[in-house]
């Protein structure tokens, strides 16, 4: 997998943010190979896994190609997938830092305007399609009102105001919205 190395100003560590969101095909491989491995799940994630209705393949694919971003994935599933890959979810600030360098256009549009076409193949090593493709899970928490996680970047269903690097939204970690996906980092 192609990644971009980003030196953070807040420390000497570097983070590698995946260039693309996790695809439907990659997530389906995880589901077949390791979805039920408790060692990949956080304690809260495993409790959710044991009690949750597991979304079927149609929920995640929504009729799209295997190279498109997976959606309808809970925070816990995204977290377990990244562990399976030997990675983790990015923080919101790391994601936003990488987003600021993304030259690709936002993939959402104002009412009455055509939405930009999502590139089918991308040959860049830098993170792309970070604004308006899918909201993406991060490790950040929103403390007011309960156990909420922070989503970043807007989605194909967002208005243009939410298709920015600074755009965030709260989401409960057990939810699996149809416009939320993720990418991993190894930093």
Structure description:
With 187 residues, the protein is α+β, with helices and mostly antiparallel strands. Helices cover 24% and strands 16% of the residues. It contains five helices and six strands. The chain has a four-stranded mixed sheet. The chain has a two-stranded antiparallel sheet with strand order 1-2. Strand 1 and strand 2 form a beta hairpin. It is globular. Mean pLDDT is 79; it is low at 1-14 and 119-123.
Unreliable residue runs = 1-14, 119-123
Structural class: alpha+beta
Distance between the terminal alpha carbons, to the nearest Å? 14 Å
Q: Largest sheet, order of strands side by side?
A: 5-4-3-6
> Which assembly state applies to the chains in this document?
single chain
- Provide the residue-averaged pLDDT: 79
Strand content: 15-25%
**Helix and strand run:** EEHHHHHEEEE
Count of beta strands? 6
Helix amount: 10-25%
Q: Counting H and I runs of at least 4 residues, what is the number of helices?
A: 5
Major sheet description: 4 strands, mixed
Shape: globular
What's the Cα radius of gyration?
A: 16 Å
Give short descriptive properties of this protein.
single chain; 187 residues; alpha+beta; four-stranded mixed beta sheet; two-stranded antiparallel ribbon; disordered N terminus
């Amino acid at each position: 997998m192609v990644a971009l190395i980003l030196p953070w100003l807040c420390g000497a560590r570097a983070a590698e943010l995946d260039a693309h969101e996790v695809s439907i095909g990659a997530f389906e491989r995880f589901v077949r190979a390791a979805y039920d491995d408790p060692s990949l799940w956080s304690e809260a994630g495993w409790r959710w896994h044991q009690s949750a209705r597991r979304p079927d393949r149609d929920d995640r694919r929504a009729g799209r190609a295997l190279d498109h971003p997976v959606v309808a994935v809970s925070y816990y599933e995204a977290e377990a997938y990244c562990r399976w890959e030997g990675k983790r979810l990015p923080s919101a600030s790391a994601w936003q830092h990488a987003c600021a360098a993304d030259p690709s256009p936002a993939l959402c549009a104002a009412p009455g305007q055509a939405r930009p076409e999502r590139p089918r193949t991308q040959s860049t090593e830098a993170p792309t399609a970070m604004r308006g493709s899918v909201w993406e899970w991060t490790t950040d928490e929103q403390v007011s009102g309960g156990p909420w996680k922070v989503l970043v970047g807007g989605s194909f269903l967002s208005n243009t105001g939410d298709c920015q690097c600074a755009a965030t939204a709260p989401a409960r970690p057990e939810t699996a919205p149809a416009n939320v996906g993720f990418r991993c980092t190894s930093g």
